[in-house]
Design goal:
Chains A, B, C, D: Keywords: Disulfide bond, Glycosidase, Hydrolase, Signal. The structure is a homotetramer. With about 425 residues, chain A is α/β, with parallel strands linked by helices. Chain A folds into two domains: about 350 residues, Alpha-Beta Barrel (TIM Barrel), CATH 3.20.20.70; about 80 residues, Golgi alpha-mannosidase II (Immunoglobulin-like, Sandwich), CATH 2.60.40.1180. In chain A, about 25% of the residues lie in helices and about 20% in strands. In chain A, the strands form six sheets. Chain A has an eight-stranded parallel sheet with strand order 10-9-8-7-3-2-1-13. A four-stranded antiparallel sheet of chain A has the order 14-15-16-21, with helices on one face. In chain A, a hairpin with a 3-residue loop joins strand 14 and strand 15. In chain A, helix 9 runs parallel beside helix 10. The longest helix of chain A has 17 residues. The two termini of chain A are about 35 Å apart. The interface between A and B is medium-sized, with 19 and 19 residues.
Chain lengths: ~425, ~425, ~425, ~425
């Protein structure tokens, strides 16, 4: 079994965080799964991911004060493993866990994923709960000096055999439920520790080993970013995707910044190994955060985002509530000319970038195809004259392109003249 | 009440750590108190300080693995306040706390001190124990993101009214017991946090306020070091002493290094405000650490240490087990010519320092007295020629000095010629 | 000779920089000296200091592009020592140097100072000019890897005997001219080098030694800041004053910030050793910078500045053009109740500071006098109730004060009630 | 013209530095060229590179004191462009420059390269020499705040049109001489500047543009390292190779460390873009440094080095004096099984690395070939059992390999058993 086979192409799906924060429940997950099966599955979207604190019974009840309630009311089994909150996920009762919900997704032809925090629950350590399959307790494998800087639920797990046993039993339980995707948080970057003290480095490996032992193809996604570029081998060795940015939201500064991040990581995109630009804040977001809103991105910005994500071959995880998608939102997510670039065989590279504009080019050598895009990174309408010799190895007298978003056809000499709105893009195949 | 009146001169006493680590018990404390009353009190030593984890029932039982046992068996009252382990301190049973032991010391004419960790017990937060005098619980005031990098017992306390109430109730209980000295740990320097995130800054102030409210003169000592020189005002504003070094032990490198630290802090020594060079590893130390030993310092080094500490006016806390002191050890600790310099009115300054030697000078302007010392910081016997014009403002033809350690008398012209053994000192009055 | 005797109290005078930048000439210097002798000398102001690049013939001619012209037209003698630009300082011709101008000041009962850059001219090294009194050239003692981050004139001087010879000959020449004050730049802080590589540390000592060798009382002032608090002993050992701030200008943010700097350095103010808050931008400034203007500080801010500088006992170097001072400006500079605090025997300390207000207190124990000031650091009119028990050791029923700026008299109980304008101060004796 | 076509495969050749330091002369260069043409050319080695300070007439004359003599006797033309020292390179006289020596190499079927320092000579700026093709002087384009931390020859060039003109004229002159390879120093990493202040970033681009303008295929090599991994796009955009390490020498620690560096950079190896492990200290080195010696590497270490460099596809620049090569040294340099991996189409990746051993694998997908190597990074003889399933995608019952260094043939089941000497390697095709 080779972890790179779990995700030959970048995973695509939906994640509950951008809309629900910590509060999503079973009914809501199912509604999104239904929508995906009906509208998005045929374009390649398949993962339904339940994000952070699905084990919390009181999630969201002190939102004015805490995003994550310290010493809160969390659901765990007798081995210190978090299980779903029964009030939020009724089908999980009586030890069923997420199996019914995973089955639901599988029956729709989809895959099912969950979020976990690195480590073992602090409460399990305080209560000295046994570690499954060992004669030690959580207190013995929890590292009381390894905590998360922003979430109070866990302690890091020590790099010992019994620590591996904990992760093995945890991931096996999730595999038994039918989980296909695990997004592990507080493990890719930590603002709290200097490198050598961050136990997340060995815990990444422990998680990978635990997944291998299950024999189940579980995609491993690491969060939050920004990932450390000098650790690229380590991420790639153990995980399928890792965040190259802190949380991405619908702000132009963050989107513009992503061009720099993609430039830095472009050579690290490989089958099974995907630097991750984070969720797509398309449509309606923010409800769980107390401010339900339409994405602050206008359509030029949404097209810029999708073009960059697809060319770079980032995973595509939709952040907006699916059932509230408009046709316009949907059209951004399902542009087939773009989604084509997510397939195996395509490889992209930045051609140029300065503060005003960027050019990316994606090639499929087997198909002898090239797609390129020009992004207007400035805040004004701009005219560009692109020398096609900087993009194509052998020059032609006349080029014929299809512009991917407008679906219009263009004929050009060596100099391609373009007008692009602020924050907008034109992409040509 | 002014905190600077609690410690007009640098506190002097004994601390259990260097010999007992976490394990000292009542009988041992009393034996040291008896010794102090008999042999050291008349020289100014008066504090008997019980160091770290006197609340731990299992302290020292996993010493090969943990100095501080995570999720260990700690004794606390119903308000989440640590109380003495009854097996180790039998007189503390039935709610007596340290009052009987404090009384014992007071009856000997001594003062009694304890060590505390910054914060509130993690176990109190997990158990949602009530905070005395409030309607909230430990879970509400504990900051789950504020931990100690090396001890697993506590969470930092949030900067809220109920947090102050916790500290008030804690310090009031200790005042009621008769505590005269509190050494708070994990509060002076933290290797874990970048400055702005370290909750110890506000907790220092909370402790000071809690002490003021008791109306009892409780000396506040901050640990560990190195203290941040740019925070000197903050330490001085709230505490009586603060460590300017990480743990000091019987290694020459650490002692040599202290000259640099004293150089840096010399202008900050004031009544009620004492930069602290840490305990004196004199005599027998290390038992609780599994290696009972005589101090690695030879007598030249011990004299150098005492001379620097006394001239600089560091607090003097003896680290060795008192009942095992030899006459030689004792003679180092009770040199009256040196201890004179600890009194109010003396002020010292470094005259010169390089890698080979240092000169310090202490003056009492009211008494028109000057004491100076020449330290050989090199590893060899060295001859020095000291130009006394660099030390005394008005020159004389002939100087007459008493060398403080040998108690010999010296006559010198402007150039004082000295031979000093490696790591040794000559001090003149 | 003891360098601390050169400046028992903080130096006071005028500096050409704030008004003239690099361009001041002889006539202008004399006009300011005349003014000082007539109006300011009696209050203690005595130094007339010619600031940066008095050796430059083309200073200021490319001001739009360079403050300091690279590879410019600088005047130096055959030993690579800068001498005054003869076109700007006509009396300096024929080898007279600044002697005539220094004499002019001395005849007015004033003292004369100059600015120098750390190091030896780059042009002297390129031209292999001889080092006076040695058989080596500038190329041998210049460290080509030690430059200034913002001024292109010099290379640092290597820590070798011939390097000391260069500094000796330089300072002796200046002593022969009658220079009383040297402000050395690029030597207190450097943004360019990590500590261990900064040759300014040894060059500070070389300058001090060179001054001692002249036998002339030349005050040594180090610039720019912020000085490193952990190097306080080093500054104090070699210099009389050192900047604790980067260039100070007439902006409230910088003035407010100075309270934090003074808090940090207050224990380091000693006879001969003065942490320096930088020039006073009072009156008319900025002409040489291309924007002649009245100080942006209003009178409340000017009074706050003067009160802090005087209580802290910073050197007082007036930055505005003296001949353009209004009576109002002058009144700020010559408040005798405040200037009294600059004398020997006064010692100040911050009592309290937060973001809204600060209290300072200055005491003269011999005279049994106390002065205190309350500063409104906020942007609004504020009422304050000051508990006088936090300021005075022994409380009275009734206190009588003179408010220093309004010269009004106040009677108060334990709680002193005050209204202070934004950025303003009330100071009481 | 596309810079990536200049170096489809990693450049291979000889560089004068490791043996000659700054002192190589024409005769010596020719002798090495002769040797290369005769013994190494057929294996792909083709570049003869004259390293640092070929323009210095007094290079090496103060070696006990300076590697690079400050303000030394350097040869430059009237436009401030360095030209060869005529005493060292007689054929360069009368304006011929390196053309005769380049011709000599070309006639042998080899290519000719030189080292340059980033920037413009400091002496040119001091002398205000004109910039070719402009009406400004060196003083106008030199940035006096941009120097090299270890070599005193140059100032950085400002990012202005006339600065580009300087680089254009410099590179055009070198192109006219027939230079095929430029190693620019002080441009890849600088220990002196924080990133944003380092003028090397724009000077890299200026050099690239200057090369493009010549129309000549000049390979651009950047030094010193370690290159910044987050700047990979920038290096790749402008240069053909860049050092990923500080100077590499014949010390095991440096060689072991290179495994970590190659791990980090492995995804950035592309046609025209080669992360560079630095010169190969094989044979006799060090003469110019005052200690002529045989490489400290034993043959196991040399084979390890060559195997890593070839698999990683680092440029191969021989550091030892060619005319002193033994047959043994030569055999390390010309192993054809290994050199095969330098060709286009091969791509390598680390399979595993810990402190004891590493596995690398190189694949040529078109040829369906795989080569792998096992490196013993420990200091002892070790037996290894390598699971071939971790290396090959589809498993076989029996594998047949040729071990590349011993040229022996091996038959293995799924577990390959090996014994490898300390610091040694076995490589299999």
């Amino acid at each position: 079994m080779n972890k790179n086979d779990f995700a030959i192409t970048p995973p695509m799906g939906w994640n509950s965080y951008d809309y629900y924060d910590t509060t999503v429940n079973e009914e809501q997950v199912k509604a999104n799964a239904d929508y995906m099966a009906k509208h998005l599955k045929k374009f390649g979207y398949e993962y339904i991911v339940v994000d952070i604190e699905w084990y919390s019974n009181d999630a969201g009840t002190k939102r004015y004060e805490h995003q994550y309630i310290p010493f809160g009311d969390d659901e765990m089994d007798e081995y210190g493993r978090f299980i779903p909150s029964p009030s939020r996920f009724p089908s999980s009762k009586n030890g069923a866990g997420f199996k019914p919900l995973a089955d639901y997704c599988h029956n729709l032809g989809l895959k099912f994923g969950i979020h976990i925090m690195r480590g073992i629950p602090r409460a399990a350590a305080e209560r000295h709960l046994p570690v499954f399959g060992t004669n030690v307790t959580a207190a013995d494998i929890a590292d009381p000096g390894s905590i998360c800087g922003w979430n109070p639920d866990m302690y890091g797990v020590r790099n010992v055999i019994e620590g591996q046993a904990y992760y093995d039993s945890l991931i096996q339980m999730y595999a038994d439920w039918g989980v296909d995707f695990i997004k592990c948080d507080d493990i890719c970057d930590s603002w709290m520790y200097r490198d050598e003290h961050f136990s997340g480095w060995h815990e990444t490996r422990m998680l990978h080993e635990a997944i291998m032992k299950t024999g189940r193809n579980i995609v491993l996604s690491l969060s939050p970013g920004p990932a450390h570029i000098d650790k690229a081998f380590h991420y790639c060795d153990n995980a399928n995707m890792w965040r190259i940015t802190d949380d991405f939201w619908d702000k132009w500064e963050l989107l513009k910044n992503m061009f720099w991040r993609c430039e830095m990581w472009q050579d690290h995109v490989k089958a099974g190994c995907f630097p991750d630009c984070d969720m797509l804040p398309v449509g309606t977001v923010g409800a769980g955060f107390g401010e339900e809103r339409l994405s602050n991105f206008n359509y030029d910005e949404l097209m810029t985002m999708m073009t960059l994500w697809c060319m770079f071959r980032s995973p595509l995880m939709i952040g907006g509530e699916l059932t509230k998608m408009t046709d316009g939102d949907l059209s951004v997510l399902i542009n087939e000319d773009l989604l084509e670039l997510m397939k195996d065989g395509w490889k992209a590279a930045q051609v140029y970038r300065d503060d005003r504009y960027a050019i990316w080019k994606s090639q499929n050598k087997a198909l002898e195809k090239t797609v390129f895009a020009v992004f207007n990174l400035s805040d004004e309408y701009k005219e560009f004259e692109i020398d096609l010799n900087t993009i194509f190895d052998d020059s032609k007298e006349i080029y014929h392109f299809k512009e991917i978003w407008s679906k219009s056809y263009v004929e050009s000499g060596q100099i391609l003249k373009l007008t692009i709105p602020p924050h907008g893009v034109k992409a040509f195949k």
